Amino acid sequence: MPYVCADYSKYKFVNVCWNSENGIATVTLKRPPVNSLTAEFLRELSSLLLDLEKDETQGLIFTSEFDEKVFSAGLDFKELYRPSIDHAKEFMSLLHSFSFRLSCTAYPTVAVINGHAPAGGCIIPLCCEYRIGLNNFNIGLNELKFGILLPDWLSSLMIHTIGSRNAEQAILSGTLFSSEHALRIGLVDEIAPTKEVALEKATAFLNKAKIVNRSLRLDAKLHLRRPILQEFQKDIENELAKNVSLLMSDKVQQSLDAHIKILKEKRGN
Ligand SMILES: CCCC/C=C/CC(=O)SCCNC(=O)CCNC(=O)[C@H](O)C(C)(C)COP(=O)(O)OP(=O)(O)OC[C@H]1O[C@@H](n2cnc3c(N)ncnc32)[C@H](O)[C@@H]1OP(=O)(O)O
Predict the structure, then answer these.
(1) Which CATH superfamily groups domain 14-268?
(2) Could you name the domain of life of the organism this protein comes from (predicted)?
(3) I need a surface site. Which of 63, 88, 144, 235 has the fewest CB within 10 A?
(4) Whether this model's pTM surpasses 0.80
């Protein structure tokens, strides 16, 4: 059984619960109010994956502290509104490296999606090997509605998960799917009535992975995910520059401004 060396209490935005009997780490995202992804959060998540790797984690479950509300609201609107060019570059690079790392972990990964997961909120589930949703949430890549063209690696993750035809329709229409619809197209693998049941199902998935030799399993995973990993590694500098210039464009900045206003009005701020 793995010996836990890392100090997981140092993390601000996640709670890590180790099961010493089966080596499964349950990582609860807890960046209030909606687990939106900032540079600091992404940096922390990347470092966490390295710690879990060193500690020979047998399996990883991601879930959210904000039960029945939100898994992750995606990229942080406020941080991406009028960022400095250096910050935009750093952000895009952190998003890319975290997503790449999560897509090719040696240990199996599951997302228990216990709330909404729009746009960038769908990235963690898509990088994971298995997705279990709860009822009454929305999930999908609706970036086109913000005027954001998806990076190739993100489209590739969607294609890998739901097939090219479904991915084309989903991405081009910018649809957020209900849990039931997400299950029908394979965007989630199962639906559970409660978080507890979802966590049991996640553990069952991870236990199945254990009967396979770890290094053989990793070879197979990397082979099966090669098309995605190639997209991550393709022309990285150019791809990042493209995403940064898109983010800084007037069109995307205006769209972010509009969304921030909508959220403010919703709260009566
Ligand atoms: C190259 C890039 C590739 C990937 C690109 C991805 C683009 C994105 O990810 S853009 C972000 C897309 N996300 C969304 O459109 C979600 C927007 N939020 C919502 O729909 C709702 O907030 C929610 C369904 C997630 C939750 O609804 P709920 O009623 O529970 O809470 P609210 O009152 O709406 O919000 C609470 C609080 O959270 C703030 N907030 C919400 N979303 C974000 C966000 N994405 N970034 C930053 N902050 C967010 C919201 O403003 C409220 O804040 P205050 O309490 O300060 O008013």
Answers:
(1) 2-enoyl-CoA Hydratase; Chain A, domain 1 (3.90.226.10)
(2) Eukaryota
(3) 235
(4) yes
